[in-house]
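Sequence only, no structure available. Ideas?
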Amino acid sequence: TQWSNYGDALLFDGRREKALEAYNSALDTVDRKLVVEGKPIDEVARAVYETFVLYLRGVPPDDDAFLRVRQTLESFEWHNDDIERIALLSRAWYVLDDPSRVKALHESADNACPGYLQLPDRRLLVSHTGS
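Reply:
I predicted one. Tokens follow.
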């Protein structure tokens, strides 16, 4: 959503409180979409936005809320041609500090879509994870 993109920009600019507000708005938006449309990608987006909200609230990684969202993220399947899902999931696994999953997702996307290598958030994640 536009809110999550705004949250990303704010987070990368170091404006964590404003980023949290934006991700909360993204959660509200995707929750409304799930009620109306119920698309699988919206379920993925919801888990990813929740990951960012928990992270920005300073919730410890071993907290039940984080463990629940981690289980939800682990349940999502992805395919090499599903770039939107891969991009979302890689962001969540980055926040959850799981570089092996980030690397696997990036390699899959890079092979399927050479343009993926040029996405700003892909380049940013590479600069932080080396994958």
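The radius of gyration is 14 Å.
Hope that gets you unstuck.
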